Amino acid sequence: MKLKIIIILAVFITIGTVLVVHKNTSSESDYQDMLILFTDQNLTVSYFFHHKNTDDLVNIKKAADFPTAVLSNNKNELYYTDFDSNSDTQLFKKDLKTSNISQLTKNFKSVDTLKLDEENQKMYMRVLLKGDKNFHIATLDLKTKKMVVWNEGNKDRSVKFFDFNKRTGLVYAVIYSEKELYHNLVEFNNNHTTFKSPLHRFVMFDDKGRQLKEIGQINVQVQDISVSTSGEKILFTSVSNPNEGSNYVINEMRTDDGTYFSIFESAQNKLSNLQQAQYLQEGRKIYFLAAANDAKVLKDESGTTAKLRSIYQYNLIDQKLTMKWSKNNGIINGFLLFNK
Known about the structure:
Elements: H1 2-14, E1 21-23, E2 34-40, E3 44-51, E4 54-62, E5 69-71, E6 77-83, E7 89-95, E8 101-103, E9 108-117, E10 122-129, E11 135-141, E12 147-149, E13 157-164, E14 171-177, H2 178-191, E15 200-205, E16 211-218, E17 221-227, E18 233-239, E19 249-254, E20 260-265, E21 271-281, E22 285-292, E23 297-299, E24 305-307, E25 310-315, E26 321-325, E27 330-337
Parallel strand pairs: 1-26
Antiparallel strand pairs: 2-3, 2-27, 3-4, 5-6, 6-7, 7-8, 9-10, 10-11, 11-12, 13-14, 14-15, 15-16, 17-18, 18-19, 19-20, 21-22, 22-25, 23-24, 25-26
């Protein structure tokens, strides 16, 4: 029973027409700047700044926890997560001019999902407090070093993923109940039924952590969300029951009334494990991470296997799917578009 619970919990916390996939043949004006995190089969993490179809290596280290990072607009500072001396995941900053590295947090069990507000010199992040099971959003003032954990006393509500809108200063998060998740896990193991996802709520906060409104709800697993530049729409990837043959769906939701609809499905496009959908041009193009159904299966030095994943661009106007970035002998952990 414990083994089943661990497997399902790990999956939960981490996650029409057949299209022709085109290789990237973009003109220079179509190049998109990206920060890309890539772990090779020797468990070395490389941080690439992809610019005009070239990859500049800005950092490299041995893999620790699941890597997350954000690069400043001037490309001088890399903020990333890594293990500290206690094997807890903390926030670090690397000055790319001097290569000086400084640790910015020390009291968390885990830190991930970094969002940088450069105008106000503030870092937003998802954190796990020591002794807790649920995740919170926290902010760090990069000038004063003041840390604020939102809703710190709430031990049930957990943040699955969030995004920050630089134009409006608002935060959009997907949250769920830890109690409901545990209840559903026990029911799954005792009754041998299909795992039922807890209710996922889409919530809007101001920059101080005050909840402004609940946008909508959904009863399937949500992998992640990304807000449009205008703040009028959010992308989210969902899946009913994550496994090798599952249909992953990219959805678009209106932030004014919570209505949403599917705009891309993995099953119709010979892809799997869709993640991290992001707007390139609002209403025109999106980028996302996925594995082709026939992609090479890789094995790292620990024996863990995974399919090779690529970054794709999907044109919402002409439905053209283009593979924009891929690299052999490793896995793309994540990417961030520089229009975000």
